[in-house]
Amino acid sequence: MKTILITGGTGLIGSKLSLALIAKGYQVRHLSRQPISTAFIKSYYWDIEQNSMDENALIGVDAIIHLAGAGIADKKWTDKRKSEIVNSRVNSTQLLFEYVQKTEQPIASFIAASATGIYPTNPHKLYNENAKAAKDFLGDCCEKWENKIDQFNTLGIRTIKLRTGIVLSKDGGALPKMAKPILAGIGAPIGDGKQWMSWIDEDDLVNMYIYALENNSLNGAYNAVSPHPCSNQNFTEVLAKILNRFIFLPKIPSFFIRLLLGEMAIIVLGSTKVSAEKIIATGFKFNFEKLNESLNKIYHE
Question: Which of 3, 63, 73, 104 has the smallest count of CB within 10 Å of its CB?
Fold first, then answer.
């Protein structure tokens, strides 16, 4: 029975991944600022700001799955918030690296979240894992984050980065925020509606983490996105249909979104079309390749 240590284990994906791993017979541990153990999950203390953690969390661990990080879209991007977003990812990864190096635990795999925000916004290009990082806040954040992740390679640990797109879940993330105005009858495409959205169903993402854990041939960066990205307008129309609503309003102007969100508007106005070919080539199978399949499952099963 292998033991997996998860950071961000109580978050949207971490909680679902923890349950899925337990169901498969793994032992699961969490790192938390407020550790509360349950019958199935032992939780250990860590404090990123104080650069400390309970070394006992690493004893006997076979793999680490690193999901911790402040929410990109939870608050407006002030200078302080942007620092929190970067530091929660960069410093937490550095902390794990230092403790793994210090304790010399024979950990086989380090599997970490990254994001498709590493890629530039360009409606005319399909990005794969070889693309250079964008020269903006998200690109810089992801590049610094991944540089810290890559340190684990120097310890002889198999290291994987899953560059995750928009995660579709009814329990959190972007989807409930997108569904709310549609359910209220005031939903509409944003900007020109042509910007690409690279998304992934929550169940496929959980399965991809388990797949990365169990397949030793995987190494390096992989895009965690559906093979069928869609435009913002198409996404809005499909979501409205699944929710049995109609879209009456004209598109929401870009200038209004920028006025409302400031620099963070790039999240909804940026256009990033991302390829899933690399992970598919390894043999990974998506259960929800198409948007209507994912949304039907989320809202009608």
Answer: 104
Report whether 208 contacts 284 (CB < 8 A): yes
pLDDT digit string (tens) for 31-51? Answer: 999 998 888 999 999 999 999
Residue type, 168: L
Provide CB contacts within 8 A for 148, sequence distance 6+: 89, 90, 93, 94, 97
Condensed to tens digits (0 to 9), the pLDDT of residues 226-281 reads: 999 999 999 999 999 999 999 877 888 888 888 888 888 888 889 999 999 999 99
Q: How far apart are CA 251 and CA 261, in angstroms?
A: 17
Specify the 3-state DSSP secondary structure of 184.
coil
DSSP string, 150-165: GGGGGGT-EEEEEEE-
Predicted pLDDT of residue 118: 97
In angstroms, the CA 107 to CA 168 distance is 31
Q: Quick one: which of 137, 123, 102, 86 has its CA closest to 264?
A: 137
- Looking at the DSSP bridge assignments, the partners of residue 197 are 230
Q: Are the beta carbons of 193 and 225 closer than 8 angstroms?
A: no
Beta strand ranges found along 156-268 (DSSP E): 158-164, 166-168, 196-197, 199-201, 220-224, 230-231
| H runs (alpha helix) in 58-184 | 79-103, 137-149, 174-183
Write down all domains in the chain, each with its CATH number in brackets: 3-300 (3.40.50.720)
